Amino acid sequence: MLLYLHGGPGDAALPLVLKFNRELEKHFTVVVWEQRGAGKSYYRFGAEQPTLDTFLQDLYALVSALLARFEQRDLYLVGHSWGSVLGLRFVQEHPELVRVYVGCGQVVNMKKSCREAYGYALSHAEGKARERLRRIDCGYPDTGDGWLEDLLFVTGQVVKHKGSLYGRTNYNELIKPFLGCRYYSPLDLLRRQKGSLQAIRCLWQELMQTDFEGQTHYGAPVIFAEGRHDSHVSSELAKRYFDSIETEKRFVWFEKSCHFPQWSESEKFNALIIGLLA
After folding, report:
1. What is the pTM of this model?
2. What is the pLDDT of residues 180-219, one digit of tens each?
3. Could you tell me if residue 160 is left (phi over 0), alpha (psi between -120 and 50 degrees) or otherwise beta?
4. Distance between CA atoms of residues 197 and 8, nearest Å
5. Residue 195, C-beta contacts closer than 8 angstroms, at least 6 positions apart
6. Is 131 exposed, middle or buried (0-12, 13-18, 19+ CB in 10 A)?
7. 13 near 4, Cβ under 8 Å?
8. CB neighbours of 62 closer than 8 A, spacing ≥ 6?
9. Which of 87, 137, 143, 181 suits 125 as a labelling partner, its CA being 20 to 30 A distant?
């Protein structure tokens, strides 16, 4: 059994996994979780807004239900970006339920990674875009008026200058699978966009506190699958952290990828996951 944790927060990914990672279904029971408030699980957060711990509780409930239903003792866990925060935290807390953890676009220290992304954007931007970036505090403010707009602007500059999706200046390649997916109605597409913005507003401040650098031991094998050119969530930071891990581990570079190796080099990624069964 393999469980996929999407990024974001709020970036539901079912159509993308179906398009790029379908080969995995020949070898695994694949579960794609559209998380609380995201995609087909969209709802408006009320006064009691979820926290990171809420999602970890959801994840534990889901894993427990899946293992019971399919009579398994543990599963393979793949986490991407925001999902890699949930994934690595879950391995910390419940290593006995994880056969192997695979992180891609792995978040290690969010503040450091955001500074790296801001530096990348600033070094490539010109004209008015560069002027605006210079007025933004470290690129990823999480308080004050207009912080969300500034955040999205910095991310947009990273994307525009090919630091997020390899060889691309936009996300069109990752949008098309949603438009043709029979599981997504036009209303689902609208809800996905609402869910993504809602999740960022709700969870970004807490996400910015993420720092795994003091954790060097894990109770399950850890694999990092990283895009060589990832400036969205620094793969260099991920590699330096990986080198400090003292338990069973493996690192795989994807030379023609940035933040999405599971889709930019899907054949190589699928082969890596299938190879775990050997």
Report:
1. 0.96
2. 999 999 999 999 999 999 999 999 999 999 999 999 999 9
3. alpha
4. 9
5. 10, 12, 37, 38, 39, 41, 42
6. exposed
7. yes
8. 3, 31, 33
9. 143
